[in-house]
C-alpha cells in the first residue's frame, strides 16, 4: 500500500510541474509581447530626451533577457516533466529505494533550475548596467547588444593586462621605473619604449661616471706620458742634429754634438723626474726607500778590483740592471774595453771563463756592444758594455779570449756593420759580401725595393 501511495504522490507532483511549466510558458509569451509593444522607435516620442531613450532601451534589453531566460527555463522544466511522467503501471515493480532515488533526483533538478533562474536575473541586471551610449538607435537587436558587450569586456581585459604589465616592469628595478606621471592606460609597447629609454639613460650615466673616475685617476699618468713624449722628441732632434753636425764637421765635432745631445736629454729627464717627484710629494705619501739589490755587493767588488789593478779611468759607468735579473753591469771606455775583458777572464778573484752571449745594438746616437760573462768557479755573472761611434763602429774582438764570440761578432758585423779588429775570420755570414747596407740599423733602406 505504501508503494501505491508513493506512486500517486509522484504522479500528482508531475502534474503540478506540468502545470507550472505551462504557466511559465504563458508568462514568457506575455513578457515577450509586452517587450515588443514597448520597443516603439524614438521618433514617435520626439519629446523624450536621450536619457529617457537610454533608460527605455535598457529596460527593454533587461526584459528581453528575462523573457529568454524564462523561455529556456520553461523548456528545461518541460523536458524534466516529460522524463518524470512515466505511467504508474510502468513503474509498478519499482521498490521503495528506487522511488526515493528518483525523488532525490527530482529535488536536485529543481534546485538546479532555481539556480539557473537566479543566474538569468543577474545577467539581466548586468545587461541593464552596461547599456550602450544614448545616441544608439533603439532598434538594436539582442545580438548587437551582445557584441558590444563582448567588445567592452575585451577592452577591460586589455586595460587590466596593460596595468599588470606596467606593475611588473616597475617591480623589475627602482632605477629603471617609468616616470610617475605615466597614464595607467599606456599600452605594453609604450611601457617597453619608456623602459628602454630609462635603461639607456642609466648606461649613459654609468659611462660618464667611469670616464670621470678615469680622468681623476689618470691625470698624473697623462702628465707622465706627455713628459716622456717630449723627452723622446728632444732626443730624436738631438740625434738628428748630431748626425748633421758630424757630416759637416767631421768626427771631432760629432763627438761634441753627441755629448751635448746626451747631456740635454739627461737634463730633461732629470727635470721631468723632479717635477714628478714634487707633484707626488704634494698629493701622495712618500714612497718607501727602494731596497738595494742583492747583487750590489758583487758589483762593488768588481769595480774595486778593476780600479785597483787597471786604474780609476777605465770605467765609464757601473750599475745594477734591474731589467735583466739585477745583473751587475760595467760600462767600459772605448780604449779600455779589451783590457777589461782580458782582466775579467784571467783575474783569480773574478775568473769569468764563459761568454754566454755578445751582440750589438743601434741607439741612433751611438752603437753598443754587450757581452755577458759567467764564472763557474764563483757562480757569478757580469755584463760588459762599450759605446761606439755610429759612423765608424769599430772595437777589438774578444774571440781570442772566448772562442764563443766568433760567430756572434760576425753576426753583428753582418747586420749592423760593427767591425771587430783582430777577429780571426770576420765576414758576412747571412747576407753575403755583395749585400748593400745593414738591416738592423734604424736608418736602413733596402737597396733593392723588391726585396
Overview of the molecule:
This protein is of the alpha/beta class and 451 residues long. 59% of the residues lie in helices and 10% in strands. It has helices at residues 2-37, 50-84, 96-129, 142-172, 188-249, 251-283, 296-310, 337-346, 406-416; strands at 315-321, 327-332, 354-362, 367-375, 380-388, 394-396, 419-421. The strands form two sheets. It has a five-stranded mixed β-sheet with strand order 1-2-5-4-3. The chain has a two-stranded parallel ribbon with strand order 6-7. Helix 1 (2-37) runs antiparallel to helix 2 and helix 4 (142-172) packs parallel to helix 5 (188-249). The chain is rod-shaped and about 150 Å long.
Strand content: 5-15%
Radius of gyration, in angstroms, nearest whole number: 56 Å
Distance between the termini: 132 Å
Largest sheet: 5 strands, mixed
